[in-house]
Design goal:
Helix content: 25-40%
Number of helices: 12
Radius of gyration: 24 Å
Oligomer: single chain
Largest sheet: 9 strands, antiparallel
Number of strands: 16
Order of helices and strands: HHHEEHHEEHHEEEHHEHEEEEHEEHEE
């Protein structure tokens, strides 16, 4: 039997046995040597089609196989990729799950488990029809308070779940981002203290899937942003900690403007900015360090921040220069050490920073 046939037989056998299968189960069903089987299982596991409950334990469906079986036909791999990249920036160390709906049932497509010794976990691909936070936000007829708030918090005897909708069109939920935590470690208030950061994660996943706004359950008429309201210093810091790139404006030697997107970190009132080898703007600001920075989000509530100051080579960076690169790569790409190419950091201590939310200005 050829390798492709063996692969399909194993995946089909796994589909028929959602509780998991052992290598001995497979050997009884598939004509393959033991060494070839373990090599194939290792490859399928590395690709995300299989997961192993524990070392030498049963094999179960991985996120890519689950996405084939249960997700909507719209880009299952896109939503998985977006989830894993965003999960790297989770604001608290509790289990984070990506949940999808099929009719009146939900399926956990993927999860990033907490590193805590006591933590909540899910059986990937296992159908759940019980009332839970994710089902409440994905349903086509959500409760009035969920439509108004844009999330649902549900408390059980031992755990707390917070679910926030994911909408590829910005309006109609088709999946949910859900965090679950033990009640002995968190109260409703402590979970809700991370709501803004988690909502930004759900919005960013929606944006990656094609959304131009993030306004779950709202009508077209309700997308109109409200009046411009200044952001407080705390609100500015919270916004600048999100996964937004900044636009840096500087002056070329011929006195014409130059604007470029840059990775940035806002730390104790200072912007730290990455300049890769060959970045023209780095030479421009050495000649004329006066710069402006702007950061904005593309959906409601349309927050944005602008700053002006001088961009100077950063010799002192919190945690060191390599740690800054790790943090930037983790923030924007979901993993550290993105590039080995030469780079340098600049710092901008703004003369002034202003922030707004709303449409005007």
């Amino acid at each position: 039997m050829s390798s492709p046939e063996n692969t399909l037989r194993i995946l089909e056998f796994l589909r028929q046995n959602p509780e998991g299968i052992t290598p001995n189960n497979i050997l009884a069903q598939v004509e393959i040597s033991r060494s070839s089987l373990f090599s194939l299982l290792k490859e399928l596991k590395s690709l995300g089609y299989l997961e192993q409950i524990r070392e030498r334990g049963r094999y179960t469906a991985g996120p890519r196989l689950i996405a084939w079986q249960h997700s909507s036909p719209k880009r299952p791999q896109d939503i998985l990729t977006a989830f894993y990249q965003e999960a790297a920036n989770a604001p608290l160390d509790e289990t984070l799950a990506l949940v999808n709906r099929e009719q009146q049932h939900i399926f956990v497509l993927a999860q990033v488990e907490s590193s805590q010794q006591v933590r909540s976990t899910f059986d990937l691909g296992r159908q759940r029809s019980d009332k839970n936070a994710a089902l409440a936000v994905i349903t086509s007829t959500p409760q009035k308070n969920i439509k108004q708030q844009g999330f649902h918090l549900q408390t059980y005897t031992e755990t707390i779940e917070l679910a926030i909708p994911i909408c590829s069109d910005g309006v109609h939920p088709e999946a949910a981002l859900m965090v679950t935590a033990p009640r002995f470690r968190h109260s409703e208030q402590s979970i809700l203290s991370h709501l803004d950061a988690l909502r930004e994660m759900a919005a960013h996943i929606s944006y990656r899937l094609g959304a131009h706004i993030y306004a779950p359950y709202q009508t077209e008429e309700s997308h109109t942003p409200g009046p411009t309201i200044p952001l407080s210093d705390d609100e500015i810091s919270t916004f600048l900690s999100g996964p937004w790139t900044a636009r840096l404006a500087c002056i070329r030697p011929d006195n014409t403007p130059h604007v470029v997107p840059v990775w940035h970190e806002w730390n104790e009132g200072v912007f730290y900015i990455a300049a890769w080898e060959g970045s023209n703007w780095a030479s421009y600001v050495r000649a004329n360090p006066k710069v402006s920075l702007s950061v904005d989000e593309p959906w409601s509530p349309l927050r944005r921040v602008s700053a002006q100051g001088q961009a100077l080579p950063a010799n002192q960076v919190p945690g060191g220069i390599n740690a800054l690169l790790d943090r930037l790569s983790q923030r924007y790409l979901g993993h550290p050490h993105y590039s080995k190419q030469p780079w340098q950091a600049f710092s901008v201590k703004p003369d002034r920073v202003k922030g707004w939310r709303g449409l005007n200005n």
